[in-house]
Every structure is written in C-alpha cells, then in structure tokens.
Amino acid sequence: MGSNVLVARLVMADIRRHRVQAVVLLLAVAAATATMALGLSLRGASGALYEQTRAATAGPDVVALSGDAGPAVTSALASLADAPEVVAHHGPYRIVYADLTTRDAASSVVVHGFAETPGTVNRPLVTSGRWVRPGGTVLERGFAAALGVGVGDRVTIAGRSYPVVGTAVTAATSVYPGAAQIGPYGGPVDYSGLAWMTRSDARALASSQDLPVTTALDLKLRDPAATDAFRDAHPDLAIRITFHSWQFRAEQDTVILRNSRPILVVGSWLLCFLAITGVAALAAGRAVEQTRRAGLLKAVGATPGLIAAALFAEYLALALAGDALGLVIARLAVPAVAAPTASRISDAAGLTGAAVATATALAVAVAVLSTLRPTLRAMRTATVTALTATAHRPRHRPWLTPLSALLPTPLLLGLRLTARRPGRAVLQACSTATTVIAIVALLTAHVQRERGYGLDGSSVLPNLRGEHDRRLILAVTILLIALAVVNTITFTWTTAMEARTNTAVARALGATPGQVSAGLSTAQLLPSLPGAIAGVPLGVGLLSFFAARNAAAPPPSLLLGAALATLLATAALTALPAYLASRRSVARTLSAETA
Amino acid sequence: MQDAVLAMLAKEPSHGYDLHARLRRSLGPLGESMNRGQIYVTLARLERAGLVVCERADGLPERPERKVYALTPAGQRRVAAWLSEVGWPKPDLAEFHLKLAAAAAARLADPVELVAAQRRELLRRLREAQQTALAESAGSGAGLLLEGVALRLQADLRWLDACERAWSAVDDEVGGG
Amino acid sequence: MSSVAVRACGLVKTHGQGQSRVRAVDEVDLVVPRGQTLAVMGPSGCGKSTLLHLLGGLERPTDGEVWLAGRRIDTLGERALARMRRRSVGFVFQAFHLVEELSAAENVELPALLAGHSLRQARRRASLLLERFGLADRARHLPSQLSGGQRQRVAVARALANDPTVVLADEPTGNLDTAATLDMLRIFEGLRSAGQTLVIVTHDERVAATADRLVSMRDGMFVDDTRLAGSHPRGLGGLIGLED
C-alpha cells in the first residue's frame, strides 16, 4: 500500500516538474488514439447511423424497383405486396428522373411521388419545414445541404419552379448522391439527389415533359433479416424487378467512406510512430536524472520492481490520460466523420468497443516503447554508479568523428553531435520521413480528378467523397506535422542540453554562437536529409496500396519541392532552440558542471 | 643536530669532512647554508661529553686533516635512545597567537594586518621551498624533505586563514558595535 | 606588442536583480604584465571565478574595462569575442571540460582547427604539446580512459594549442589528488619559467605559491596584492631551522 503511495507521489512530483513534457506526451497520444479510434469506428458508426435512420423513418426491409412505369408494372409490383412474408408496404410509387437547378448549381434529381400523409412504411423524417403539399417539394437533407438551399428557397425541376417546403431523411435510398437506385429502363445511374412531391405533382411533372419514370415498392417483411430469401422466392415475375435490401443500403452507405478508414488508420500508425519517437527522445533526455533517481530509491531500499513501476507509471498515466482525451475527441468527431453527407440522422454514432480497446492498447504501447530503454537502464545500473551518474560518457569513439575534422566548424560540430547520438539521428530521420509521407499523401489527394456531383459531372457540386478524403488527409497531415514540429524542437533542445558542456567548451575555445547554433541545426538536418529523400518513395509506395488504378500521381517536381520544403522548415525550426541554446552563458554552464 | 651527527658515526668512524659531505647530500639544497665549521663545533662538544672519541690517522698528503671520529659506548646508547624516541618538533604557534592577542588588546597593531604580513612571508617561503623541490629530481631524499617543508607551510597558511577569519569577525563586531 | 597582457580597470560584475543583487566583482583594477604568473585566492564565492571569466571574455562586465594584449574586449560582439578567445586565451577548468567523445589528441587539436589552421598543423602542434606533458602514448585515448591528472594535462595542452597571450586556470587542481596536484605544480612552474602569462584562480596555497604574484579577494574586491618572486628572505636553510 505504502509503495503505491510512494509511486503516486513520485509520479505527481515528476509531472509537476516536467509540465511541458507531460503536455506533449498527452497531446501526442491523444492525437494518435483519436485518429485510430475514429478510423476503426467508421464502419460501425456508419452502420449505426443507418440503423438509427431506418428506425426513425420506418425504413423498408426491401425496395422492389422496376425500370419502367405503367399499369402492368404497377400491378406486378402490387402483387408482391400480397406475398405472405410481407407485413406492410408502401407504394407502388412513381420515381421521375429530371434535372434540378438552383441559382448556382444544377444536378440530376429523382422525384418520389408520395402521399401527403405518410403510410406505415418509409415515412421520411422531416428535419425542417413540413412534409409535401401540392405545388411544394421536400428535398432530401444531404442533397439540400450540397445545394445550399433550405426551406423557403425555390428550385427549378425540369423547368418548373417549386418552393422547398421542407427537408427530410429516409432509409429507403442510399445517401446523397446515390438517390437514383436504378436507371430508367435498367440503364446506368447518374449522381442524383432526392426530392419528394405529392403523387399528383409527380405525375404532372413526368407527363409535362415526357420525363423517364420508374416505379418502386417499399416492403416490410415479417422477418427483416430474411431479405435474401424473399428475393429468391420471387424470381420470375412478368417484368424485371430489382430488389434492394436494407442490408445492401447500409453497405452502400460505407462506399463513400471507402478511403476514410485507411487514411485514419494508417495516419494513426504514423502519428503513433511520431509520438513514440518524440516521447522516447524526451525520456532519453531525462535518462540521467531518472537513473540517478533510481539509484537514490535503491539506496533507501526500493526494489527494482518499485523503481520500474515509478518510472513507468508516469508515462503510463500520461498515455492513458491522452488516450481518454483522444477517445472523447473521437467520440465527438465520429458523427461528422462517419457521415460526410447529411443524409442520415447523425446524433448517436459512438465508438465501437474494439476501437476503444485498440486505441487504449496503442496508448499503452506508446508508453512501453518510449520508456523501455530508460526504465531498463535505470533498473540495471548499480546503485552507486547511478548516484554518481553524469552525462553520457562514451567509451568508444563514434566513427564519424575523425572525418569531421576536415569540415568547416559548424559542420564539424554538427557531425560530431550527430555521431554522438546515432539513435536519435535515426529517430529524426524517421520523423522527417513520416512528415514527407504525409505531405506526399496530401499532394496526391489534391491532384486527383473525380466527377463532380453536378449535372454531367460538373464540379459545381463537388464530389463529397473526394472532399471528405482530402479533408481527412489534411487533418491527419496537420496533426502529423504538428507532432513532427514538436519532435524536431524536442530533438534539437535535448541535443543542445546534452551537448551544453561541449558547446560551452567549444565557445570557451573560441567558437562563435553562430557556429554553435549552426552546428546544432546541422546535427538535426543531417539525418533529416536522408529522411526527406526516403519519404518521397515511401509515401508513393504506401499510397499505391490504397489508390485506385486510375489514380493520378503528383508531378515529381512537386514531390521534390515538398521534400525540400520539409528540410527548409526543419532548418527553420531547429534555428530557434539552437539559437537560444547557443546564447546560454558559457561561464554559468561550465561552473554548474563543476559543482 | 648533535643526534644526527652521532647517528651518522654509527655506521663507521669518519672524518669531519666526510660527515659534512654526507649531511649535505641528505639535505640537498637545504644543506647548502651549512658550513664545515658547524660540524667541528658539534664534534668538539660531543667529544667533551664523552660520546665520541677522536683518533689521529694518517692524512692524505693534500689534506692535513687527520682526525677520525668514532662513537663511544655511551655514544652508541645515545644513538639507540634517539632512534626509539618519538618526540616531534613542536610548531610554535602559541607565540604568534599571543602576539595577535597582545596586539589587539593593547591596540598596538591590527591583528588582521599582522596575519596578512605573516601570510605573505609564509607564502614566499612556500614558493621557495616548492621551486627548490620541483627542481629536484623525483624520488631524491631531499625532494621528500622539501615536500614535508611545503606541507608544513601549507598547514600554517591554513591556520593563518583561520586566524584571519576569526580576527576579522572580531573587527566587524567592534566596528559594528 | 604591448608589454601588458591583461588589464582591467574599474571592473564590476553584478548578478541577480533587486534585493538579491550581488556584486560578484566590485571595482577591481588589475594589470598583468606579459610573462607574469598571477594567483588569485579567496574563499568560495569571493568572485574570483567571475573575475577569470571576465578576463577571458566568457562574461561581460557590468561596468569597467577589460584589455587583452592591448585590445579592449568588453565592448566586442559575441563573434569577435569568440575569435579573440581562439587566439589569445587558453582556459583550464576544474572539471577539465574535455570533449568526451574526442581523443586526447583531438581535444588538443580543437582550438587550432577552430582558429582555421590546417589539420596537419593542428596535429603537429598537438603531438608536440602532448609530448611536452608526457602524454605521447595517451594521444589516442578518450578522456574516460585517462586519470584525472592526465585529463588535466590534456586540458593544459589544449589551452596552449594556439599559443595564447594568457592562460586562465580556474581551480585547476580542485578535482585532483595529491600526486596529480604535484604534477600540475610542476607544469605551472614549467609554464612560469617558460615566460607564459598565467592567471590561476585557486584556493590551494601550494598552487598559488607557484605564481610570481598573489592577489587575495574578499567580497569581489582585492584585499591584498603580494609579490612572491625574487625575495630570499632567510635562505633555504632557514626553512628547516639549520641556522640555530
């Protein structure tokens, strides 16, 4: 019991002393776990949104669709409603294919002719305004949002002007822009929005311009799961009928999220990696202090287990706090991320248990991986050695050192600083490579050309899937760059602090502050160079796993420019901590080391 | 001095000249100021006390010196007693201590000033001893003796530091009160 | 060439602010002629290390002037100060402050390389210096493989690498045992007789006694300035009482 108190006290004291480090660790873990949890929850969240919408709108279990209209079609569909498995139905109703224009945009639209009083199946949920009335139209919410119109605006459908009297959502069609479930006469479908009118308005619309019309029937089955069986039981009717089950609808909803999951999951791995490198560098920077503390604890009789616990508990506590924060963020972001269109009710999408568990495991892994070495070292080091621990005393000469004598002073200092900590150089290289990978992904996403959702692929109505992907990549990239920035500053500062005696000696021997800070910057830039160069092919390679076959590649000059920009940014970022470190009083540093 | 001369005769009877040379060898540069006359005066005293006997021997042609000195049994007992003796020269700190106290009491002089002057003097001596010691080849007997001298002086200087601190504090009290 | 190596006039250095403001060096005037060895003694915190840092341009005075080899240095910019240190000042520290990942020889080469000499020149100079201090066979060792005394000898060799106007030593024997201290005494005596201008801050009387001149500091001020050289007050025999 007492040892728990001791561990808690040590952890609290240490966190208080290293607030900035604690915050960095917390935020890094939060970013990684939030992204991971989001990525893993998308599929489940999308399903949940569909389920919820289906429940709220009395969504049909099966929609029977015919690519034609007319009495024969209507009676054939109506006969399905009499099937023994069917407990309720809606329709058959008319679907009119038309063009809809607003002041700014034009789009294909399918118009469903509905009763003014909804039936027992497929009762669209009115989200604003009211339900259809003669002369007025209700737009599907996702469609209305994409068009930027609301209740009270007017839209022109097939040349006729209609006031928008309301917006609604339904589970009977796919999310915007997948409202056209089949094309007229079984032909291909365009990206279309959905609008509702009264039956008579729909009929009038269709006949006035001789527009293509199809027919649909919504069915509720006794056993909602038995949709396949129902379809198989009705293979041969007089006309060709397409059955869309609710499971198929739910599946279709995730198509728009096809790229989101890899973006978030791969992004979270990269974030994790950066978090580990950054936190490991922070932990290594404090290795001496922690080794000394471990020695102190051993000297007063603490067991190695207790020491490990004290060292590890701090990182674990912070990582778990970061995990909790990340999960809260993910929970808040999930409805928006899982439903890029407004076509579903989106207030109750949560995280899946598996996602929470994985994200938490990830946070623990970050804590373990980044503190493994210092913890082991602190446990192993003999008590007396630990108590007298001072800065790292090399026993062998880094091989780069002799070479550096031939170089100008800043490069000389930089190379020697790099050679001193090869492990950190590798981390810096990896950190840079990760940043470049993210930027390559961002650039690639931005050169893709996809069909817009407007009429004939016009991009007046943008492709929401592409937009969504780009937005997610942008968010992930911003997080990655933010972490990489923190890492670079941390690396530079840690290097500067560890090398402070040596740089102070160099200055006492006559190196200028400029030379010293250029040396510190160089120490970070040297490993960044191979990192940036490797990042481009790594990024291209990583993307090739997920890209569509016809994906466009950004021009090589752009990619090289990105790598170069990353290097320049690294140089700029290292400049400030290097400058600050080089301005420290030489006299004070050297005197402090004596004591 | 007497005891050292006696002990040197314990090995074998010697000329005064040899004794002088041997003493100087052991003392190195510190023995430079010692003249032969001192040796003869000492030997004469020892002879009167019956601790050594003087025998005439054939001198070398170029040296008229013919006296060879040897220990008597009483002299041998005296040497044995000297070797087993654990007496140690007493550093005479009391005198300086009393000088400071007297100077302060009678307001004859500032004790701190006296300490500083004494310190300067000891430092000069230390410097001299040290330079001489460093000029000696390592491991010579004289080097070891000089090292001892330097360490003594260092100890004395530290005591002077203590005196200075103490008397400065007294000054401050008087000045402050 | 000026016959004065180091000169300070009205030197003041304060640390801290407001109530906790301390005058570490308080109105110090000092002239060190070329070839003189000067020892500065005083209790801990008397400002002697700060004085050394001021003289070597590691810290800037709050007030007053510092001249080195006829050039005023307290008004120089950081970069010019660094250049000045390269050529004119050699530092020896209590904690040695060798660069731990460089071999002894590379440590000694460092100032020459910083001053822009060729690697070959730097090597030659370093091997001469290491030879002079009996470290020829230790040239390729890392500091961690050397004893304290050897490390400090490397540090002295490094301080001399650019043939500086003045060598500034801050408690050079503070971390050494008796035998290594004797070694350092021999080295300082050698530097003195070779005419190297030397300022040693120390609290070891024996180190101070190698100098030609001794100043004592209290509370940032000089309280005593003694010439130790050239006086034979009593002759060597007097040291052991042979003259009684």
UniProtKB/TrEMBL annotation, chain A:
UniProt GO cellular component terms: plasma membrane
Location of the protein in the cell: Cell membrane
Mode of membrane association: Multi-pass membrane protein
Keyword terms of this UniProt record: Cell membrane, Membrane, Transmembrane, Transmembrane helix
Residues annotated as transmembrane: 263-285, 306-329, 349-372, 425-445, 472-493, 525-546, 558-580
InterPro entries (UniProt xref): ABC3_permease_C, MacB_PCD, Macrolide_Exporter_MacB
Family matches, as Pfam families: FtsX, MacB_PCD
Family: Belongs to the ABC-4 integral membrane protein family.
Protein name, UniProt field: Putative ABC transport system permease protein
Organism: Planomonospora venezuelensis
Automatic annotation (TrEMBL), chain C:
Family matches, as Gene3D superfamilies: P-loop containing nucleotide triphosphate hydrolases (3.40.50.300)
This protein's name: Putative ABC transport system ATP-binding protein
InterPro entries in UniProt: AAA+_ATPase (IPR003593), ABC_transporter-like_ATP-bd (IPR003439), ABC_transporter-like_CS (IPR017871), ABC_transpr_LolD-like (IPR015854), MacB-like_ATP-bd (IPR017911), P-loop_NTPase (IPR027417)
One Gene Ontology cellular component: plasma membrane
MF terms in GO: ATP binding; ATP hydrolysis activity; transmembrane transporter activity
Transmembrane regions listed in the UniProt entry: none
Pfam families: ABC_tran
Key words of the record: ATP-binding, Nucleotide-binding, Transport
Listed SMART domains: AAA
PROSITE patterns listed in its UniProt record: ABC_TRANSPORTER_1 (PS00211), ABC_TRANSPORTER_2 (PS50893)
Residues covered by the ABC transporter domain: 6-244
